[in-house]
Please model this.
Amino acid sequence: MLEIELIERAQKGDKTAYTELIHIHHRTVEKFAFQCGVQVHDIPDVTQEVFVKLYRFLHQFQRERFTTWLYKITLNTARDYYRKETKEKEKEQKLHVEVGLNYTTKSAEERVLVFEEDRHLHNAIQALDEKYRHPIIMFYFHELSYEQIAEVLNVPLSTIKIRLMRAKALLKSAIQVNGGVKHGR
Model:
């Protein structure tokens, strides 16, 4: 069945069609969320929130490209998730400081890297400011066009071109400083 047919059926309340959309796009959402900086242990929560939002707003979907719309939802959900989490962590750290406890833990991504084969490249990408990181991820890992990236990020096409050029230069510099990147596959 074509994706647009699934979308139309899901918009009419067909839960089987909606479940099939989740099945088709689940891995893409997880991978994009991770590449946008979502920590490994948070990916299931963020992914679930993306599909909850998708269900709630599917009736608003028009005939634009579905995956572009899904990338927008994923990006915004990841941002919102960490805004909320940052506020909670600040409160928690303040509480621990007041109590006099040292609060340090290893993050999950330090122990396990689920999607990326190359830790150096992943770390270099994660170190980029998000205005550079997101276009690089969408262009190279999700094969979106400049126009689609501009639409997802809601910025002019010329800005995307400049940010991609700058991001590539920053990555090249970071990789050279950190001793190079292995090229696999």
